[in-house]
Every structure is written in C-alpha cells, then in structure tokens.
Amino acid sequence: MLEQLIIEAKKAREMAYTPYSNFKVGAALQTKSGAIFHGCNIENAAYSLCNCAERTALFSAYAVGERDFNAIVVVADSPRPVPPCGACRQVMSELCSGDMPVTLTNLNGDLNQTTVRDLLPGAFLADDLKNE
Ligand SMILES: O=c1ccn([C@H]2C[C@H](O)[C@@H](CO)O2)c(=O)[nH]1
Ligand SMILES: [Zn+2]
C-alpha cells in the first residue's frame, strides 16, 4: 500500500551519496509481484555522472530481471513534492507503463500523485524508431 511504499522511499533516501549537493532523494519501486526496490541518488565528483534515485531503483530492479511495475514513490526534503528530472521521466517512460502511478512527496508530507505519461507527454518511445 502507498503508506508503506512512502516509508520505504524514506528508508532508501537515507542511503543517498550526496557529498556535492547534500540533497538526498529516495525512491521505492513496487513490482507487480509485490517486491520493493530501493533507489537513492549517487553523486560523483564529475558532476554530470550523478544518478538519480528513480533511475537507481529502476536499474536495480532491471538488473535482477524485474520488468513489471505497479508504482513508484519519490521523496526528498524539498519545498514541493520532488519533481523528477527530464532524464528520469524519459527512463520511466521506457521502462514503465504510461498509466503507472508515480507518487511524488516530501518530508512535510505534501503529495503529488501523477502518472508516467503525465510526467512526460509525447515521450520518445521504442516505436518511434520504426519507419514502416
Ligand atoms: O527527482 C530527483 C531530483 C533530483 N535528484 C538528485 C540528483 C542530484 O544528486 C541531486 C540534485 O539535483 O538530486 C534525484 O535523485 N531525483
Ligand atoms: Zn532524475
């Protein structure tokens, strides 16, 4: 349920490696089978290599063969529910269904419940590579 996924995202956030921004983000991704994958942001002295919490969670799940997801929660200590960056919106559009619920939240408990499709309408998708 959503409350539990929010708790898991907060736990994931504690693992963030953020010596440069000190802005910790956590994500919890639930599979259709009920498993939960944690993700946190992982920064790098070469700043452009920073990886966001959302992508960490998705890539962790993918790396062990999970492909079907129910929901994702993202949390940060942000003034508004943390909005995923463009790269994560694109990756979610590829790896999750368009109607998958995405819950964005912050440590104040503000919630923005949206979907993968609404976060990136008109995403570039696999079918766009075909010209038949
Ligand atoms: O939705 C978001 C937004 C930002 N970040 C990370 C990237 C970087 O480490 C730090 C500041 O942008 O926050 C995430 O992990 N997810
Ligand atoms: Zn991102």
UniProtKB/TrEMBL annotation:
<feature type="domain" description="CMP/dCMP-type deaminase">
    <location>
        <begin position="1"/>
        <end position="127"/>
    </location>
</feature>
<comment type="function">
    <text>This enzyme scavenges exogenous and endogenous cytidine and 2'-deoxycytidine for UMP synthesis.</text>
</comment>
<keyword id="KW-0862">Zinc</keyword>
<keyword id="KW-0378">Hydrolase</keyword>
<dbReference type="InterPro" id="IPR016192">
    <property type="entry name" value="APOBEC/CMP_deaminase_Zn-bd"/>
</dbReference>
<dbReference type="InterPro" id="IPR016193">
    <property type="entry name" value="Cytidine_deaminase-like"/>
</dbReference>
<keyword id="KW-0479">Metal-binding</keyword>
<dbReference type="InterPro" id="IPR050202">
    <property type="entry name" value="Cyt/Deoxycyt_deaminase"/>
</dbReference>
<dbReference type="InterPro" id="IPR002125">
    <property type="entry name" value="CMP_dCMP_dom"/>
</dbReference>
<dbReference type="InterPro" id="IPR006262">
    <property type="entry name" value="Cyt_deam_tetra"/>
</dbReference>
<dbReference type="Pfam" id="PF00383">
    <property type="entry name" value="dCMP_cyt_deam_1"/>
</dbReference>
<comment type="similarity">
    <text>Belongs to the cytidine and deoxycytidylate deaminase family.</text>
</comment>
<protein>
    <recommendedName>
        <fullName>Cytidine deaminase</fullName>
        <ecNumber>3.5.4.5</ecNumber>
    </recommendedName>
</protein>
